[in-house]
Specification:
The protein is mostly helical and 280 residues long. It is built from 13 helices and no strands. α5 crosses α6, α8 packs antiparallel against α9 and α9 crosses α10.
């Protein structure tokens, strides 16, 4: 089957997935483990007066963060998050996940992300908050994949799959689609994996582009062997790769470019130019 037909099958399949229930997932029951955990406490510090709105606290917290006043930022953002401000909760989740201005705590990050996902699971997928909520679902899914040591959050691949599935279908989130594809590959469900990889790759998710390109270049997973098209995706993925964690993408690209013939390289360049034109 030509790759254009393969992609068409993928996209049609996604439309059906988006219209169907997500593995019996109930949005209000999203992060099940989080219900057993107390909400993340407000760190010590000056908490804004009750007359301050959540948005005002978020704004001043953001200003404090940008000014390098991380402790003050955490206090203000915590107040906003406790009052239901979604972006404040997301920012705190990122700070605790990365140890940015606070002591790193995967458990606190999980609590903020899971509460954000649970409280906002049914927001419009086209709204301004959608990408932050979707990112929270992905973060919760990532924690469920590995578990959090010395906590009640245990590794649970099926819960991770539910988080990714919801974000991938309801929000159309490319990171969730990529993670779902990796789970499908682990299950040897290559058709579903290719479907999610194609959706994510067309949205610019560079890791999905790399895996899809590698599969196409080598004809893996039952996909037709299309070296030029595979090299195109690998080229795009190589351009988006950053840091040591993406070293495998560089290896995929270099292996493909070394084994491609001149015709495939030339056709891949043309495909890349067409892609770039379509993104303008």
């Amino acid at each position: 089957m030509p790759i254009s037909d393969t992609i068409r099958v993928v996209l049609v399949g996604a439309a059906f997935a988006a219209a169907s229930p997500v593995l019996g997932f109930e949005v209000k029951d999203a992060p099940t483990a989080a219900s057993a955990l107390s909400a993340a406490p407000v760190p010590p510090g000056t908490v804004p007066s009750g007359t301050v709105t959540p948005f005002q606290a978020f704004r001043t917290g953001t200003q404090s963060y940008l000014a390098g006043e991380k402790e003050k930022a955490v206090s203000e953002l915590s107040y906003a998050a406790e009052q239901g401000h979604a972006l404040a909760a997301w920012k705190l989740g990122r700070m605790y996940a990365e140890g940015d201005g606070v002591k790193r705590s995967d458990l606190k990050a999980f609590q903020y992300f899971s509460k954000l996902a649970n409280d906002n699971a049914d927001v419009s997928p086209f709204g301004a908050q959608a990408r932050f909520v979707a990112n929270a679902f992905v973060a919760v899914g990532n924690y469920y994949q590995t578990g959090i040591p010395n906590s009640e959050v245990k590794a649970n691949v099926e819960r991770a799959r539910r988080m990714y599935s919801y974000a991938a279908t309801y929000f159309g989130d490319p990171d969730a689609q990529y993670q779902l594809a990796r789970l499908c590959l682990n299950d040897k469900d290559n058709r579903q994996a290719a479907r999610w990889l194609s959706l994510a790759a067309h949205k610019g998710q560079h890791r999905a582009q790399a895996v899809l390109g590698h599969m196409l270049f080598n004809g893996d997973g039952g996909l037709p062997r299309e070296q030029a098209r595979g090299l195109m995706w690998l080229t795009l993925a190589r351009e988006g790769a950053a840091g040591a964690e993406d070293g495998w993408i560089v290896e995929y690209y270099e292996d493909a470019i070394a084994h491609a013939n001149d015709d495939d390289r030339g056709l891949a360049r043309m495909y890349v130019e067409q892609w770039a034109a379509s993104q303008r």
